[in-house]
Design goal:
alpha/beta, 7 helices, 6-stranded mixed β-sheet, single chain
Length: 273
């Protein structure tokens, strides 16, 4: 590490070899094409990656691990694909703003591990700070208040004690309310705040931050306390409603960091460094 500041204690994960990081797939009953593209991605990752990390919003909504006990057909196919992948390659499940209720029971069922928040990945590309990213959108004060409430252990216990049908209705209501509210929010407050990013890099001691959530894949160069740093945003996935379809992941290897865009159809990928 090049930072002079001693990093605070974080969850350090050794990740040897080639690491792929994907986020914001938003699997759900209305996204069959996205699910098919994601399943194809899992098959490729099983051949080419040494570790796969899914950094949150794997599902468009997650109302508790008990939904995986008797899953609907769309969910069963994705759970089966994840389980088959985890037999061959280490798999980490992160939690996002849509699926923050993913727990250890689901991870155990799939043969995966639950990603700690945040995590410091010790990779061949360097030490990487990885989070979902919504915690850095501090310009949206209303969302941050909501985030603190729904992530409170007592609130989660109360919600998970409700019948599945009621949980689903609450989740549907919250999602529609969020979509309506986002239409009237300035674009800048739904992106990460530079000061929050700088604080995160400074406190972690890492020179590389990777996150999802914003659906704005890119590499950003910045300078914090006199050191050159990088912020990489993971692509989101939508093969059902977006034109052209989109998806992708970030690869960490001895060659550095790069964004790989999933092909919209048969053909080669597009990568950016």
């Amino acid at each position: 590490m090049s930072s002079l500041r001693k990093p605070r204690s974080l969850n350090k994960l050794p990740c040897p070899g080639r690491v792929w990081v994907a986020s914001d797939i938003h699997l759900g009953p209305d996204s069959p094409a996205t699910a098919a593209a994601f399943h194809a991605f899992l098959e490729r990752a099983a051949r080419e990656a040494d570790t796969l990390i899914l950094a949150g919003d794997i599902f468009d909504a997650w109302i508790g691990d008990d939904v995986a006990l008797r899953p609907e057909p769309w969910l069963k196919s994705s759970l089966d694909a994840l389980k088959a992948f985890a037999v061959r390659t280490p798999l980490w499940l992160g939690r996002g703003n849509r699926d923050f209720l993913i727990g250890h029971r689901l991870a155990l069922q799939l043969g995966a591990r639950l990603l700690p928040e945040p995590a410091l990945l010790q990779t061949q590309a360097g030490v990487v700070l990885l989070t979902h990213g919504d915690e850095y959108c501090t310009g949206d004060a209303r969302y941050q208040r909501f985030r603190r409430v729904v992530r409170h252990p007592g609130v989660q216990r109360a919600y998970l004690a409700l019948p599945l049908s009621l949980r689903q209705r609450i989740a549907n209501w919250a999602r529609q309310r969020s979509k309506h509210a986002n239409r009237y929010k300035p674009a800048n407050i739904m992106d990460v705040a530079p000061s929050s990013v700088e604080d995160a890099l400074r406190s972690s001691g890492s020179n590389i931050l990777i996150h999802g959530h914003t659906h704005r894949p890119a590499r950003h160069s910045l300078r914090v306390d006199g050191w050159d740093r990088e912020r990489w945003v993971i692509p989101d996935w939508d093969f059902d409603h977006a034109r052209p379809p989109r998806g992708g992941w970030i690869e960490l290897s001895s060659g550095g960091v790069r964004i790989v865009h999933a092909p919209a159809e048969q053909g080669g990928d597009q990568a950016s460094k």
